[in-house]
């Protein structure tokens, strides 16, 4: 187990009730799961793509999820006219982690990535708290409900937390819930 069941910060004393609470709680649990998978590693470990031939690293996943949060909540729900984060990094969605000339990754790079991700998560929580789930938002030539977007975010985190599980297990053998 990654953490003992009775110490798992994702466990709630009471079950969620109602659609909004269930969706928000699942989304927050996956956000916390990604953070847990990254705990206790060095900057270089966080930036190591451990499942060849994939270039996915834990730090790349954090950067990518900052981009996803930013795009869906700022650009789509709020309608802000912003470029996608990390669009200058070769179009890989933030997965490429900046490295020093010697190939190492600095603690500052890690801090910047986590600060950005946490800021985007905090902003997304505020946006979601202020909008109805049946509110329609424009995505390309379609309109979708905010609830669909939240379900997509849960799916996005679930998929990438699976990736994080594999990467972490390859790095130090640690795996689990």
TrEMBL record:
<dbReference type="Pfam" id="PF04978">
    <property type="entry name" value="MST"/>
</dbReference>
<dbReference type="InterPro" id="IPR007061">
    <property type="entry name" value="MST-like"/>
</dbReference>
<dbReference type="InterPro" id="IPR034660">
    <property type="entry name" value="DinB/YfiT-like"/>
</dbReference>
<protein>
    <recommendedName>
        <fullName>Mini-circle protein</fullName>
    </recommendedName>
</protein>
